[in-house]
Write a structure and sequence with these properties.
heterotrimer, A mainly alpha (about 350), B alpha/beta (about 290), C mainly alpha (about 130), A: about 350 residues, mainly alpha, 2 domains, 3-stranded antiparallel sheet, B: about 290 residues, alpha/beta
């Protein structure tokens, strides 16, 4: 059965190996130079607020080369690999056999359908996880300097994001592993139920994409109870502030000073008593009408306006990674169990 | 002799339609059993149930004395249209058989492939229909089963391929002492090779028994016009046709027909099957089983 | 070794055809005492017929005392039906020839001769049984 799994999986395996090799070449061509740029930037061993400046310099410096393109390619590949696996490794696994009638051949040899499914799921599932994780690890190794620079508070082009941003979280650490396992088994399950490969691929894509969108929006923020704090306005290092002529204003925090890579879930202005406030005190309305900016903020701050922030600290990164991965793996296991039950009963 | 296939009240329903209903059969071992009936009668359903590919809705089925899923190693299954893996070569298929079947006889498989003049390196998707059928038969036979199940194996083959396939099948039956159950919607395919017949029409078994006995106990009676109900009790009318003066009846009877008004002639398998098919069309639901 | 063939349209059961062909071969001297009949497996595979059919024919021949099965080896002829005996009936053959000549002179064609012969042959056989 192992031989058969390999023989039927050969083309996909070789494609994956070629893609990994091509990606490795791409990273190898650019990685060492990126590392040397980082070494020369002086971020290593820097202290305090000077780090931010060095880090931002380094990140903008990268625009001179193709580094951001490579980074983006890497992120996109890792983002899409689980879906590709679900579509091309998972959906056809059972659906193609039933479509072409070869299940009459495969399931009337001397091994049971359960055994057939178990070996295929295990071997190809492991391969799916390994390939995805390999991409992720390679990308992680290559982009380590960027990550460290961002961690020191450097801000660069839009692409340089903190580790909690959806694109980064989904493509680093171990979450790709969970996505790959889930997408694969989702594909297999769709194939078992729909029994035709193309519709199964479509359904797999739709469900997986929906879940991938829903996860950062509604699931990930609630995996752990977030921390809440209120800080003075000048403790926000990336503030967005808008107001209208009536004195209604809004403050949002982009990053906390001193915790540049914390994940801000929500923020808002509160008064000294801690209650949300959106109407500026009389004394500051003139400053607001004159135009937003430091003077208006100073005025608000002097009236005791603070910013309440709900966030996940950077230290919780790995806890969130493990939890989310565990959830996806649990979903994958549940689907796998369903496939075994379903295939063990009926068929044809 | 143990029954090679035993069904009791076997039924299979898809949504609201019964593909097979109330099927009771006891097929003895050591025969080549022909399962004949029109398309849609339930032949494929019955064979898939026997091969463990389907689970019954009602009733039970036992193959070689046990549930089909417990007999996978002892059943060789050849599905309709002889499915093979188009991307795998002939040699790959033999490796497939070898890896998935502990009882695989590699020498037998190799010698058959050589005798059939199949190129081991050729991709199975490029084989002709007859060659695919022969490859699939080799896979089924080389695992050394006790029972072969074949679903319309020659339906889409040209006459030469059909003859060659049946030759190979008979060679395997004679050489390995296999029991065979094969289905067809054409009686002519089955006549030479089958010695046991099951007629399936409208999802039900209409008649089952050894061919010799069926032919010996069914007769064609022709004579002056007569109401079929007036015949003696031992003579069951299967089909009847009348003109204004003459009646032609196909009857089943164990005793000889002594009424001098009748001209008695023998029937062949085709007449017999047609008679049961027309009986089914007329709404008859009785089932006749001839025991040896 | 003799080779069998089947006429699918003759209406005669296959096993009977095999028996006839063996007896015919014996009569014509194509098969002699001690000759081996083709193996059941080869006949079944060659003609694409059920091996049980071949077995039935061979068993019938064995019952008639014409052949004997040696397990594991094959089936062998034990008795001929003698081309010799045909030759011994030369007088009958000449009589038959004369009758045929007379039938033709009387204006009967081939079919009529055959019909006349068969019906007489059959009714005589029935009288013998009765």
């Amino acid at each position: 059965m192992i031989w058969l799994t390999w023989r039927q999986f050969r083309v996909q395996a070789i494609t994956a190996a070629a893609a990994l090799a091509a990606f490795a070449v791409l990273l190898a061509l650019t990685g060492p130079h990126l590392a040397s740029l980082y070494a020369a930037s002086g971020i290593n061993g820097c202290q305090g607020t000077g780090c931010e400046h060095l880090a931002s310099n380094f990140l903008y410096q990268l625009q001179a080369g193709t580094y951001w393109v490579v980074y983006l390619i890497g992120v996109m590949i890792i983002l899409f690999v689980p879906a590709v696996i679900g579509l091309f490794w998972g959906a056809p696994m059972v659906a193609r056999e039933i479509e072409t009638g070869t299940h009459h051949l495969a399931w009337t040899q001397s091994i049971s359908r359960t055994q057939w499914l178990a070996v295929k799921l295990a071997l190809i599932g492991l391969a799916a996880m390994a390939v995805t994780e390999a991409f992720s690890l390679m990308q992680g190794w290559w982009a380590a300097p960027i990550g460290r620079a961002v961690g020191h508070g450097g801000s660069g082009p839009l692409i340089a994001m903190i580790q909690f941003s959806p694109l980064v979280f989904a493509t680093h650490g171990i979450t790709p592993l969970g996505y790959a396992a889930f997408a694969f088994i989702l594909g297999v399950t769709a194939g078992v139920l729909i029994r035709r490969a193309i519709p199964a691929m479509a359904v797999t894509l739709a469900i997986f994409a929906a879940l991938q969108i829903a996860t950062p929006l509604w699931i990930r923020p609630h995996l752990f109870p977030p921390d809440r704090t209120s800080v003075t306005i000048d403790a926000i290092s990336d503030i967005s502030f808008n107001n209208n002529t009536q004195g209604v204003f809004r403050i949002a925090a982009g990053a906390l000073a001193g915790q540049p890579d914390a994940w801000i879930l929500s923020s808002g202005a509160v008064n000294a008593a801690g209650q949300p406030v959106s109407m500026a005190p009389e004394a500051c309305k003139q400053a607001l009408i004159n135009g937003s900016g430091p003077s208006a903020l100073d005025c608000l701050a002097s009236h005791g306006i603070r910013v309440a922030v709900t966030y996940q600290p950077a230290s919780r990164y790995w806890a969130l990674e493990w939890t989310e991965t565990a959830i996806y793996l649990a979903l994958a296991s549940a689907l796998a169990g369903y496939c075994f039950w379903r295939l063990g009963r009926r068929l044809s | 002799m143990t029954a090679v296939l035993e069904a009791r009240g076997l039924g299979k329903r898809y949504r609201r339609m019964w593909a097979l209903a109330d099927c009771t059969l006891s097929v003895p071992a050591g025969h080549v059993v022909g399962l004949v009936g029109p398309n849609g009668a339930g032949k494929t359903t019955l064979l898939n149930l026997a091969g463990g590919l389907l689970a019954p809705t009602t009733g039970t089925i036992e193959v070689l004395g046990g549930p089909p899923l417990a007999r996978l190693a002892r059943i060789g299954f050849l599905a309709q249209h002889a499915p093979v893996y188009a991307g795998l070569s002939v040699a790959d298929h033999l490796a497939f058989g070898a890896h998935l079947n502990p009882g695989w006889d590699a020498g037998l498989a190799r010698s058959r492939i050589e005798r059939l003049d199949l190129d081991p390196g050729q991709r199975a998707g490029t084989l002709s229909g007859g060659q695919r059928a022969q490859l699939a038969l080799t896979l089924a036979v080389a695992k050394r089963p006790d029972l072969l199940i074949l679903d319309e194996p020659v339906a889409s083959l040209d006459p030469l391929a059909r003859r060659e396939f049946l030759q190979e099948l008979m060679e395997a039956v004679a050489g390995q002492g296999l029991s065979v159950v094969l289905s067809s919607h054409l009686v002519s395919d089955l006549e030479r090779v089958c010695d046991y017949l099951v007629v399936l029409v409208g999802s039900r078994v209409r008649v089952a028994g050894p061919v010799d006995e069926l032919l010996a106990t069914h007769h064609l009676l022709s004579g002056p016009r007569r109401d079929p109900d007036t015949l003696p009790a031992g003579q069951r009318v299967i089909s009847a046709s009348h003109t204004d003066r003459q009646s032609t009846l196909l009857v089943h009877t164990i005793d000889p027909v002594l009424d001098p008004a009748w001209t008695v002639s023998e029937v062949d398998l085709e007449d017999l099957v047609l008679a049961y098919m027309s009986q089914a069309a007329a709404g008859g639901r009785r089932h006749l089983e001839v025991q040896r | 070794m003799i080779e069998f063939h089947l006429d699918g349209r003759s209406g005669v059961a296959p096993y009977l055809q095999l028996i006839h062909q063996v007896r015919h071969a014996l009569r014509l001297g194509l098969l002699d005492e001690g000759d081996q009949l083709p193996k059941v497996k080869d006949v079944a595979a060659g003609l694409a017929i059920n091996p049980n059919t071949v077995l039935k024919a061979y068993r019938e021949l064995e019952y008639e005392g014409l052949v004997a099965a040696r397990p594991g080896i094959g089936t062998f002829v034990t008795r001929t039906l003698g081309g010799a005996s045909l030759a011994a009936h030369e007088p009958l053959r000449r009589e038959l020839r004369g009758w045929l000549a007379r039938a033709r002179r009387a204006g009967l064609d081939d079919e009529s001769i055959e019909a006349l012969f068969l019906s007489t042959f059959r009714s005589a056989a029935e009288e013998d049984i009765a």
